Amino acid sequence: MEMPSRTFLNWYRRADYTAYAFNTRPVMRNPCQKPFVFYMSKARMNYRTNITVSEYIRHIVPHPKCRWKMANPAEVDKVEVLKKPDPLLWNRSPRRNCCRVLESKRKGMVIDVGVCREGEISRVLTTKT
Hints:
The chain contains no helices and 5 strands. With about 130 residues, it is mainly beta.
């Protein structure tokens, strides 16, 4: 989620990916390494809990059978993201929010996005050029 895939081209014709103010990861040729694409399907505000709830549905395209050393990500069809408004968001730097998987089911998962807690760390991802 931190390092976007190179799904865009530089304005200039040369393939210089260092021209961006952020790091990108190369597009993988191996079909098992390509990212799954999710589209927002719903967003609503739960005024009782003051939480924004957004739902994302996986774009269904044929994928090859892959051998995973973890749970098969192709089985996740829906992701629900919960976020409380944070008026101090832009004052928190460099890490503004952290994500926590609250619930993971066979066909979906629930993710909470919020202020980073004690012990939650982030790492800076860089690409070698």
